[in-house]
Amino acid sequence: MFECANCPESLKPQLQAHWRDWCEQAGKARVSQAEDLLRDQALQRGLARSLTGSEFFFRQCCRQPQLLLRLLQSADLGLALPDFDSDASLDCALRRLRNRVTTEVIFRDFATQWDISRACLRLSALAELCIDAALQWHHRQLVQRYGEPRDSRGQVQSMVVLGMGKLGARELNLSSDIDLIFAYPEPGHTDGERCVENQIFFQRLGQRLIKSLNTITADGFVFRVDMRLRPYGDSGPLVSHFSALEDYYQTQGREWERYAMVKARPVAGDKRFATELMALLRPFTYRRYIDFSAIEALREMKALIQRQVRARGLSDNIKLGRGGIREVEFIAQAFQLIRGGRDPALRERNLLKLLPLLETEGHVEAGVAGELADCYRLLRRVEHALQAQRDQQTQALPQDDRERARLAYALGRDNSAQLFGELAAVRNVVEREFDTVIAPPADIAEPRVAEEWQTLWGSVSEDGSEEINLQALNNAGFTPAREALDLLRDLNVAPMVVALPASSRARLDQFMPLLLAVAGLQQQPLLVLNRVLPLVRSVLRRSAYLVLVNENPPVLSQLVRLCSASPRIAEQLARHPILLDELLDSRRLLAPVAAADLSDELRRELLRTGSTDLEWQMEALRYFKQSQSLRIAAQEVSGTLPLMKVSDALTWLAEAILQHALHLAWMQMVEKYGLPAGASEGDMRFAIIAYGKLGGLELSYGSDLDIVFMHDADPQGVTDGSNGIDNLRFYTRLAQRLIHILQTRTLSGPLYAVDTRLRPSGNSGLLVTTMTAFEKYQRESAWTWEHQALVRARPVAGSTRLSNDFQRLRLKLLCEARNEQKLRKDVIAMRDKMRAHLDQGNDKDFDLKHGVGGIVDIEFLVQYAALAWAPTAPSIVRYTDTIRILESLVDAGLMPAKQAGYLIDAYKAYRSEGHRLALQQLPGIVRDDHFTAERKTVQASWQQLLG
């Protein structure tokens, strides 16, 4: 007699009875084989748990005695359908396979041979195999009757089956329903003699498919099919064409349908059509912005579930009850819906694969993902054990002591107290994390203050409340109060606000009192209103941005602080509200980024788009530039980034974008024309040379990029593609493509304005020059001002080898002996010409850049010194930025340290004020009595060097 030593006494009679019944069905030979195999204690425990924990397992083994032996002998029975030749034989084959696989999953689980992930994966694979086999069979049968369904162009159509819920995530459990949606590409007709519309064809196909899976026969059923997730639910058509689905979800799709669509996955049908369908549905599921409105929907769904739990007494339901499976899913899917539009990695359907990603990306605290994963595994194992008992879809924990003991034993616990203690601990963890993610945020302001502002906002357009509202605004520092009240009233009664849907209006009504409360704490509350309200107006039709602020109190504080400090930041946020996402993490916002980290971050951002489409990648580049510029500006106004670091950061940002934009352009050109002769993947024989502020590492907000393109490939060579062109045309088109990527005005505007006039011969010269032609031009034709420009030139992207060659050539050209008298005359003449055309100063105002003693005077002084003295002191032209050249002049003994220090201090002061004015969107002009000492110092040095 088969016994298991650790089986509880209360369960031994059942175990012995089940074993006897199997022995009677199996016969002596099989019993003998089984007893030999059961000398293995692990197999013995697994079989004992299966026979006591699952009536379904016991019945299936009695019906097919050989199955038990096969389970003991093998670690995996595999997954395959036998041949079938009729509807009846198909249905029989599907059900017998389902029964065998379910039996195996129960045994492998209880014997701890498979973890829960593998068990769910096998059940999901079973469902896919059965759906696909039935779909193909019934499609062929219908084609014989009606012909192939075709679209208006004669293209053959096929039905795509979307698996939703746990099937979509490959997390299917024992005795689970499968939620499906049926779709086909386009309307049309079949091509047979008995022609019918595609809609009729696919509707009949769907009905036959459901019947093959759903109908209960002598062999049981395959899967219960639930079609209620389709558009319009039970009242909608069983199958829809793609355009109808897209229209439904874009115009009528509800938040719970977004939640359901997170796990949607094609499980059967033509892969090309399936890919097309998923691309159509993606914009509905995932927003391009960070979408905190998903939190509201999840709260509402959870509140509804909790009401049902209380009404139906389901507190012991491990799926729907507090701390249950559904709450773990909500935690993970909240982040998917909020951030999945921006981060394709978070579109992972499988929860156990998704949780580590949430921790890696910093969305949950360290250790939380592992803790939740362990909780989820236990909850799912308990769910499986409950459903294994009678092959019923249940998640209710038993109340009966004997049933509790049976459940605990099946799951390998010593007793029910141990199991239920673990469950209580697990559910507490899940409940805690669920409340952390889904629970409403704490109020930003004191409740009393918030109530006051709520009352004011609610009555702002009522004449009877005007006096009281003016007094409240005045007391809070909104002066003049009349102007503040007018701003609020104009917004409150604006046609756009009046026409808002109820949900959007509720979000605005929640936001405005919070804004007033936080603005009232600032030094200039009215200034805050003037700068933040344009942003409010810009997001009214996309009120999910208001939810982002409402859900994240620190974001509003950060928003108000930055907008108070800089109208430029306020305007940038109003024009591109998607940048509000960057305010979510103040540590990241205010943390300076190194050049290498910046390039890596951009690379990850482009990979994250998950798209090879150029337009999409151009948008990603623009968002990256805007977000990083916002971070740099925030760091500057907060004082965490000094002037020199601001220019460095803006320069590194431009370099990173140039490198990646060049890579995009290069890949497109190579794909179209092939590789140029002599070039390779590692050396494109093309480089971008930066001049001006980019070359001098002195970029500021809104600066143009002065760049020159250079190549050193054989101009007579040709590319190796089928559509080959000569090298010169290739590199010219490469430069044009790069300029297109940088300058094209997309929805997010251009990346940078590009100026290529510093190339040899300016606008009349070739767009791309060779190294040889560049050297010849510099020696024979270049003007003195072009040699001055070369002082600040440096390679920033492209071939490393060619960049190094350019560096050597630049040093050689700058170190050649010059006629100092002619050089001095040319520099003075160019400076006078620039001042005459560009100086915006007058008797009352000083132009920081072009005024006498200003920025350009320092730059011209430094460039003159570099060109005049480099032949004897090459080290002074090693660097391209003005400050380090001045320091090099000191190191070389060519300028007193005191004089260079004065010039450096003046240069920093001018540029610092220029940055401050740029953030305030003001021209770089100050009153004439400003910087008098600095200007005298610069003029004295000018007089000394240039006379």
UniProtKB/TrEMBL annotation:
Residues 76-276, 557-808 form the Glutamate-ammonia ligase adenylyltransferase repeated domain. GO terms for molecular function: [glutamate-ammonia-ligase] adenylyltransferase activity; [glutamine synthetase]-adenylyl-L-tyrosine phosphorylase activity; ligase activity. InterPro entries: GlnE (IPR023057), GlnE_rpt_dom (IPR005190), NT_sf (IPR043519), PII_UdlTrfase/GS_AdlTrfase (IPR013546). Its cofactor is Mg(2+). It is an enzyme of class 2 (transferase). Pfam families: GlnD_UR_UTase (PF08335), GlnE (PF03710). It catalyses: [glutamine synthetase]-L-tyrosine + ATP = [glutamine synthetase]-O(4)-(5'-adenylyl)-L-tyrosine + diphosphate; [glutamine synthetase]-O(4)-(5'-adenylyl)-L-tyrosine + phosphate = [glutamine synthetase]-L-tyrosine + ADP. Its EC number is 2.7.7.89, 2.7.7.42. The keyword Nucleotidyltransferase applies. Residues 1-442 are annotated as: Adenylyl removase. Keywords: ATP-binding, Ligase, Magnesium, Multifunctional enzyme, Nucleotide-binding, Nucleotidyltransferase, Transferase. SUPFAM superfamilies: Nucleotidyltransferase (SSF81301), Nucleotidyltransferase substrate binding subunit/domain (SSF81593). Involved in the regulation of glutamine synthetase GlnA, a key enzyme in the process to assimilate ammonia. When cellular nitrogen levels are high, the C-terminal adenylyl transferase (AT) inactivates GlnA by covalent transfer of an adenylyl group from ATP to specific tyrosine residue of GlnA, thus reducing its activity. Conversely, when nitrogen levels are low, the N-terminal adenylyl removase (AR) activates GlnA by removing the adenylyl group by phosphorolysis, increasing its activity. HAMAP family: GlnE. This is Bifunctional glutamine synthetase adenylyltransferase/adenylyl-removing enzyme. It comes from Microbulbifer spongiae. The gene is glnE.
